[in-house]
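Good day; I would like, with your permission, to put a structural problem before you. What I wish to show you is a protein chain and, alongside it, a tokenised description of its three-dimensional fold. Thank you for your consideration; the sequence and its tokens are set out here:
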Amino acid sequence: MKNKYRKLKFTLLLQTVLVTALTVLVGGFILQYVIDGIYNDSFAELFVKFLMSLDIKKSQAIRLYWKLIGNNKIFFIIVGFLLLFAVFYYVALSKMMKYVDQIGDGIENILSESTEPIHLITELKPIEIRLNEIKANLKRKEIEAEEGEKKKNDLVLFLAHDLKTPLTSIVAYLSMLDTHEDMPREDREKYTHIALEKSIRLGELINEFFDITRYNLQKIELEAIEINLSFMLEQLADELYGVLQEKSLTCEVQVEENLVVYGDPDKLARVFDNILRNAIAYCYADTKIQIEAQMKNRNVEIVFTNQGDKIPGVMLQTIFEKFYRVDGSRSSGTGGAGLGLAIAKEIVELHGGLIRAKSDDNRTQFVVTLPSKTEKEEGTADEVHTHRRRAFGSKSGRRRLVQRKTGKGDLEQPGTDDGDLQ
């Protein structure tokens, strides 16, 4: 960094040396040929005559000359050289100011949003490079902001359309039920069920609107406590039983017993719920979703695996972006705000963890890594919580695998100490 401006420093030094040399040469010439030369006696005579014109005797005028000027010649020479140097340096500064003008032009180029790159003189090459980097960064952020705003506007437009669709159906079916009092019972039950489904979907879409507002206007804050991750994952799988059955899915949970992390249970529950719902939305029907959790390198690793279409590698890099959706659709059946995974990523990173996705031909995995409980001293409290903040006594004991299946044909069976995760 220090050597970037070597050429500029050398140029300024050279100009200073030239100004000094010019001052010495011109000052020496004036001293030699003017002050000590042809005008030496003339100046003294003029000074004496001037004093004599003020009714001062000639002898007294000569003494005043030597007292004021003749004996202080060195002082006047130094002052003269300094004044001469100041004049020459001021002239040189006008040339040096072109560097400032060049930088000003570069800044103006950035402010004017010109598409032309910034060009400065050779001595300011490092500043030229830096200004072009700043310009490129600002342009990139501007494009990203425009794309984000466009995605948000498009999403709001799509959601508004999707809000109208179920609402129209609800009004239509309720109107039929209201106007046809003699409608057969089977038809009435059928239309009532359809209206209920449309109402539930409408509620989900409204919640997505709230998610958009919270995500953009509210900073996520954590209320961290000790969490029994084993209970949380099993409970989440149980709560999604109805959603799983709709697609004839099963959910298998394989977790080590008493996995404890330190974090916000409600926020982490949302992370896992978002990942699970994403897996349910995009997996094949009549397949199994697996949830595995274990200690790995002093961290807790949670893996969600589902069978479904492969996510291309390029999309894996952007799948956690705000308002991003893999299928790019807005189907009211699977369509979401595209915020679930983005919010999950932010929450996991706030916990000091990492979330990533992997996908092959027919399997997709979401891997969440969280630090194990280290922020709270052992023995300070003998209590852990699930995501509903219900307390369970924390007991020491050997780890075991707990396997639960949720879906068609529910079953629960204990694992063994040496059992491998499937």
Remarks:
- The two ends are 55 Å apart (CA to CA).
- The longest strand covers residues 288-296.
- Residues 15 and 93 are 9 Å apart (CA to CA).
- Residues 225-414 form a domain with the Heat Shock Protein 90 fold (CATH 3.30.565.10).
